[in-house]
Design goal:
Order of helices and strands of chain A: EHHEHEHEHEHEHEEHHHEEHEHHEH
Shape of chain B: globular
Strand content of chain A: 5-15%
Order of helices and strands of chain B: HEHEHHEHHEEEHEHHEEHEEEEEEEE
Distance between the termini of chain B: 69 Å
CATH topology of the largest domain in chain A: Aspartate Aminotransferase, domain 2
CATH class of the largest domain in chain B: Alpha Beta
Oligomer: heterodimer
Largest interface: A-B, 19 and 19 residues
Helix content of chain B: 25-40%
Number of helices of chain B: 10
CATH superfamily of the largest domain in chain A: Type I PLP-dependent aspartate aminotransferase-like (Major domain)
CATH architecture of the largest domain in chain A: 3-Layer(aba) Sandwich
Low-confidence stretches of chain A: none
Radius of gyration of chain B: 23 Å
Number of strands of chain B: 17
Strand content of chain B: 25-35%
Structural class of chain B: alpha/beta
Largest sheet of chain B: 6 strands, antiparallel, barrel
Helix content of chain A: 40-55%
Radius of gyration of chain A: 21 Å
CATH class of the largest domain in chain A: Alpha Beta
CATH topology of the largest domain in chain B: Rossmann fold
């Protein structure tokens, strides 16, 4: 197996050194953060320090930060915990938002345009004059295309009619400012693994005064909003990774250069390759692109065999690749969506990663194109 | 690199052919193994990995396991994908799952139900091998730059004077050639069946155990994979409700003997489950001799009415040379469980006609008629509905 090139930061970013250090330190500690004794107090301090780091990065109060087991749980907590009768979501939300939304008494999925940007007017209509029974949930940046969503505009509209507004900022956090006040949202989900923290930690952040019903009751942790003993080392790593990502936000400029080089290179190899959401503001680290005529599952396997890690759409736990609901919502024909992969960069990405990707991508494209000609002959 | 690889290179000195027939080192030979999660394909992967081949495991997700067993919360993948993944981890080979659910439904499940609705008795495994496995998975393997696609089927591929030949497995009890007759010559070029030469299944299990595979004792898969509880009728009825509509059970002599609850429950030669008693039959043993989907009638008659000497085949797949106009002496199997029987083969357009030396009972449309000469599979086709038989 050739040396590994990791270009799947939107699935999970490599652990940042600061996070690793914080985790190792926490793993050396003894005690339950809920305990009265000094061991408990020291553990508690680690959690509260991390809470402060999350609060600072999101413009929230420390009391508003609820640690969860993942970004997915944060989304579930927001959507179930808000207890609103009607839920309005965009059609390109992550499954961890769509699935709970579909359990609401009334669920409206709002369409997006060809660049994958949600239709604000359609949300306006769906809200109706009185939206006091509504929860709106729209992501800040899409995890597959990177496209920014007009969350601030939506929040302004929705809150004026009495709706509660949740924002899934999981793909965005650590890659762009995610300030609750600026966005004007009531709740925001973030995940540790996407910004260089450990897997298995996330947070739902609430604006002061927003009340939420817990999914896990009993134990009283997280101000009775999420029971269960805290993941001490995970939370420590999450806090440290968040702080480091915030301090190095300027790194996104470097990633945009890598991404642009990759996209230019792909178009040079295959002029008919299609780039998605490249005409609208999007995350600097994300590229969604097609290899004409080659199934994305084949691309992901062949790239993996060449030592390059990327992803295609959203993978279910069995590992099978399903058609991207995001690209479908953008009006991309299934046959074309089936040839799209996502490349996502992170703090550890380098220019040589791009070179390795282009070399492998080019040889796969040439080989498959040749095989197809051979079959046709 | 394992010890075995270091001391027993499959290709030595002068560049001969490796065990899969390629003139290169195993390490330079990329092989996709179709891994079902069962003992056979797991053993193939283990054998090839031990020989030093670059092995890639691929498991096909063919249907929603959770929906098939109608158990809420059952994973869409099921245990077999899990087993294949665990075997691959143990062998240190990459493993991927391909979602072929929609094509499996289109190319296997729906034709299966359609065939029952037409009064046929289909074999979905043949359709599956011909489409999703040896057309689609083979194409994926080719796209991955693989030199070969290996499976755990018990059948032999031999290099003959005119290219690859298909032969029965060494173990007649395990032979799966009946289910693989539709493999084309082009597909055979890339296919490899490492288990075809083994003397018995026990040998496979022993090999699996020697490679430390947890699936060595896993029971053989039964029946049809997408009908986990054995009730194919429920699957057919869901896809083609008309196949489950009631109709009359009629004697060849025209007497209406009773009613049935859908032609999908019957196959040619069937005796039991006709739902008619001695009072109606007069004690005569009766068999299903024909299914008439247009009128939803099940035609029954005495055993003597079952014999067929002429069998018409459609969608012939032919793997051998020319057939003389005066016919070719062959052996044919008209059911997977029947031994090969002597017959003469005539080509007819894109089909064929087989004349059996001795008439066979239970010649059912939708089943395959596979044509052999000795151990070699010359080809085969689907048994067509016999429209000439009269009431």
């Amino acid at each position: 197996m050739p040396s590994a090139v990791y270009l799947d930061d939107n699935a999970a970013s490599p652990l940042r050194p600061a996070a690793r250090e914080a985790m190792l330190s926490a793993l050396g500690m003894t005690g339950n953060p809920s305990s009265v004794h000094r061991f408990g107090r020291l553990a508690r301090r680690v959690i509260e320090d991390a809470r402060a780091q999350i609060a600072v990065s999101t413009g929230a109060t420390t009391a508003g930060v609820i640690f969860t087991s993942s970004g997915g749980e944060a989304n579930a907590l927001a959507l179930h915990g808000a207890r609103r009768r009607r839920i309005i979501v965009s059609a390109i939300e992550h499954d961890s938002v769509l699935a709970p939304a579909q359990r609401a008494a009334v669920c409206a999925e709002i369409s997006v345009d060809g660049d994958g940007v949600v239709d604000v007017e359609a949300i306006d209509k769906a809200l109706g004059p009185d939206a006091s029974d509504v929860l709106v949930s729209v992501m800040l940046a899409n995890n597959e295309t990177g496209a920014f969503q007009p969350v601030a505009d939506i929040a302004k509209l929705a809150r004026a009619r009495g709706a509660l507004v949740h924002c899934d900022a999981i793909a965005a956090a650590g890659r762009m400012p995610c300030d609750m006040d600026t966005l004007g949202v009531d709740m925001m989900s973030i995940s540790s693994a996407k910004l260089g923290g450990p897997l298995g930690v996330g947070a739902l952040v609430l604006r002061p005064g927003v009340d939420i019903a817990p999914l896990i009751v009993g134990g009283g942790q997280e101000r009775r909003r999420r029971g269960g003993t805290e993941n001490l080392s995970g939370i420590a790593g999450f806090g440290a990774a968040t702080a480091e990502a915030m301090a190095r936000m300027s790194e996104q400029t470097r990633l945009a250069v890598l991404r642009d080089k990759l996209e230019t290179g792909v178009l040079a190899l295959a002029p008919t390759a299609r780039l998605f959401a490249n005409a609208v503001p999007r995350l600097a680290n994300t590229s969604c692109l097609t290899m004409p005529g080659v199934a994305n599952e084949t691309q992901v396997m062949a790239l993996d065999l060449a030592g390059i890690a990327v992803s295609a759409g959203a993978a279910c736990s069995s590992g099978k690749v399903t058609a991207s609901h995001v690209l479908r919502a953008m009006g991309v024909p299934d046959s074309e969506a089936a040839t799209a992969i996502r490349v996502s960069f992170g703090w550890r990405s380098t220019e040589s990663d791009v070179d390795a990707f282009l070399a492998a991508w080019g040889s796969i494209y040439a080989r498959v194109a040749q095989a197809k000609r051979g079959t046709a002959a | 690199m394992t010890l075995a690889q270091q001391i027993a290179p499959a290709v030595s000195g002068e560049m001969g052919l490796n065990s899969l027939g390629f003139a290169k080192r195993p390490a330079d030979t990329r092989v996709v193994v179709a891994m079902s999660g069962g003992v056979d394909s797991s053993t193939v992967a283990a054998m090839l990995a031990a020989e030093g081949y670059e092995v890639i495991g691929i498991t096909l997700q063919l249907y929603d396991h959770g929906a098939a067993v109608a158990k809420k919360g059952a994973c869409c993948a099921g245990d077999d994908i899990h087993d294949a993944r665990r075997v691959s981890e143990r062998l240190g080979i990459p493993h991927y799952v391909l979602d072929y659910e929609s094509r499996f439904r289109k190319d296997v499940m729906e034709p299966f139900a359609d065939a029952y609705a037409r009064g046929e008795t289909p074999i979905p495994c043949i359709a599956c091998n011909r489409t999703v496995k040896f057309r689609d998975l083979l194409a994926a393997a080719r796209d991955l730059g693989a030199d070969a696609l290996a499976t755990g089927h018990y059948v032999q591929r031999r290099d003959g004077a005119d290219g690859a030949e298909l032969h029965m497995a060494a173990d007649p009890a395990r032979d799966q050639s009946y289910f693989l007759y539709a493999t084309t010559r082009e597909q055979l070029e890339l296919l490899r069946f490492p288990l075809g030469t083994l003397a018995s299944k026990a040998e496979t299990r022993a090999l699996a155990a020697s490679h430390g595979l947890a699936v060595a004792d896993k029971p053989d898969s039964q029946d049809i994979c997408f009908v986990p509880n054995g009730s194919y009728a429920a699957v057919v009825q869901k896809l083609r409700p008309e196949a489950g509509e009631p109709g009359e059970v009629v004697h060849l002599d025209g007497r209406v003997l009773g009613r049935h609850d859908g032609i999908l429950h019957f196959t040619i030669g069937q005796r039991r489950g006709l739902g008619i008693g001695d009072a109606e039959t007069g004690g005569e043993p009766l068999y299903v001799v024909r299914l008439e989907p247009e009128t939803r009638r099940v035609i029954v008659g005495p055993e003597a009415a079952l014999g067929r000497a002429r069998v018409t085949l459609r969608d012939l797949n032919w793997l051998a040379g020319d057939v003389p106009a005066e016919g070719l002496a062959v052996q044919v199997k008209i059911r997977s469980t029947r031994p090969p029987a002597p017959a003469t083969l005539f080509l007819r357009g894109d089909g064929a006609e087989v004349v059996l030396d001795v008439p066979e009972k239970a010649v059912a449309p939708g089943q395959a008629c596979v044509i052999y000469q000795g151990s070699r599979v010359l080809g085969g086709g689907m048994i067509a509905r016999d429209i000439s038989a009269k009431l």
